[in-house]
């Protein structure tokens, strides 16, 4: 029996590019050399994805328990939830059926990880509108994982090569995000960022904290969140022995971090952190009218189990076309192995 780590990978929204990019990732022999991968999804949908991607040599092995997985290159083991009737389902659209299925794959992979049946979890994208239509009122995986693992202190991290970003808030309106910049939360995220770097093998991480306002508020001229909330959080983190600087003006902190000045950036809200990461990881080629690369990962920090995700969405506009890139999924699987080996994520 192989000693490799077992990685549970959700198929994502069945109507999305998730099934196709999963086949592409599994078509690479190197994946099976790194780990024992298993898909949590629907075998029939995966069999269709094999056709879309044009890999007829790949077999789908429908299993009901992880111990039935073969973990052999050329076979994709699918923990088969049988939630989608492929004769009656449409790719590239939001639906209750797909939302329900995507939610159940996530719930199941969390249960498998909590039970120790898989060593780490990787998620393909789900569609937030679809899961909500299906009655699961969450704003994303992050909140589902936090709820089902009973975690109260967590944060979303995105990473692309040496640029890492952790967020003070994520899926809330911009107005609300400003109100969530509070000393206690900023401090909590600084601590989470520091621990995450250590889990990734960085011995003495240097944390950079972004300001909220233009020029970090220019000493109160353009807003006082820096003075009232962010600077006090940084002061306390320093007292705790964390190597941390800030608030750094948000327009330059990411160039500094990319150049190596910081190991990780604490961003004050979703798009402040997501835009620089995606400008680096998503490369659009106008001449050929396609994405040359879609790379980077999304990690939920603070959980008792490991969760790494693709950092793109469901890409319904490309579903069923066989054109989507599996690079971000490969990045996510590699990161999950790194973290599972470290087992120090918190
Ligand atoms: N981890 C997750 O579950 C995530 C889910 N979403 C959800 O996905 C849905 C769509 O979100 P959008 O903002 O449209 O972002 P998106 O990432 O799905 O699409 C943005 C653009 O990137 C392209 N693209 C995305 N992934 C690609 C890949 N692997 N290969 C080639 N091209 C790719 C798409 O075709 C599109 O042009 C929303 O419901 C959103 O909530 C978005 C981000 C992450
Ligand atoms: O939408 C996302 C990033 O904006 C991803 O969110 P989740 O990882 O919570 O699903």
Descriptive report:
The chain is an alpha/beta fold. It has two domains: 6-151 and 303-342, Isopropylmalate Dehydrogenase (3-Layer(aba) Sandwich), CATH 3.40.718.10; 155-277, Isopropylmalate Dehydrogenase (3-Layer(aba) Sandwich), CATH 3.40.718. The protein is 39% helix and 20% strand. Strands 3-4-2-1-5-14-13-6-7-10-8-9 form a twelve-stranded mixed beta sheet, with helices on both faces. The protein has a two-stranded antiparallel sheet with strand order 11-12. A hairpin with a 2-residue loop joins strand 6 (155-160) and strand 7 (163-167). Helix 1 crosses helix 3 (43-53) and helix 8 crosses helix 9. Residues 140-142, 274, 298, 309 line the site of 1,3-dihydroxyacetonephosphate (13P).
Quick description:
It holds the Pfam family PdxA. By secondary structure, the protein is an alpha/beta fold.
Instruction: Measure the end-to-end span.
Output: 30 Å
Specify the number of helices: 12
Low-confidence stretches: none
Q: Structural class, judged by helices and strands?
A: alpha/beta
Rg calc: 20 Å
**Structural shape:** globular
**What's the arrangement of strands in the largest beta sheet?**
3-4-2-1-5-14-13-6-7-10-8-9
Function: Catalyzes the NAD-dependent oxidation and subsequent decarboxylation of D-threonate 4-phosphate to produce dihydroxyacetone phosphate (DHAP).
Subunit structure: Homodimer.
Protein name: Putative D-threonate 4-phosphate dehydrogenase
Family: Belongs to the PdxA family. PdxA2 subfamily.
């Amino acid at each position: 029996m192989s000693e490799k780590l077992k990685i549970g990978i959700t198929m994502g929204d069945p109507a999305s590019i998730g099934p196709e990019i999963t086949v592409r990732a599994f078509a690479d022999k190197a994946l099976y050399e790194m780990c024992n991968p298993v898909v949590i999804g629907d075998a029939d949908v995966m069999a269709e994805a094999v056709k879309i991607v044009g890999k007829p040599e790949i077999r789908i092995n429908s299993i009901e328990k992880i111990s039935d997985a073969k973990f052999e290159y050329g076979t994709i083991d699918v923990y088969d939830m049988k939630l989608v009737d492929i004769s009656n389902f449409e790719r590239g659209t939001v639906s209750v059926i797909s939302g329900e299925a995507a939610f159940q794959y996530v719930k199941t992979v969390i249960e498998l990880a909590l039970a120790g049946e898989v060593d780490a979890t990787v998620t393909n994208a789900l569609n937030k509108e679809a899961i909500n239509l299906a009655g699961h009122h969450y704003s994303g995986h992050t909140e589902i994982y936090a709820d089902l693992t009973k975690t109260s202190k967590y944060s979303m991290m995105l990473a692309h090569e040496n640029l890492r970003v952790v967020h003070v808030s994520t899926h809330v309106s911009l107005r609300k995000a400003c109100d969530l910049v509070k000393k206690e939360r900023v401090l909590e995220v600084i601590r989470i960022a520091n621990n995450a770097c250590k889990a990734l093998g960085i011995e003495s991480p240097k944390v950079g904290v972004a300001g909220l306002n233009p020029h970090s508020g220019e000493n109160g001229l353009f807003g006082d969140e820096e003075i009232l909330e962010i600077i006090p959080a940084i002061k306390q983190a320093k007292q705790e022995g964390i190597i941390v600087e800030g608030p750094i003006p948000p327009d330059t902190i990411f160039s500094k971090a990319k150049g190596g000045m910081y190991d990780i950036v604490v961003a004050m809200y979703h798009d402040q952190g997501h835009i620089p990461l995606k400008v680096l990881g998503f490369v659009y080629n106008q001449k050929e009218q396609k994405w040359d690369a879609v790379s980077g990962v999304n990690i939920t920090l603070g959980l008792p189990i490991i969760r790494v995700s693709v950092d793109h969405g469901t890409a319904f506009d490309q579903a069923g076309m066989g054109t989507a890139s599996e690079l971000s999924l490969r990045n996510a699987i590699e990161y999950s192995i790194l973290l599972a080996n470290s087992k120090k994520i918190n």
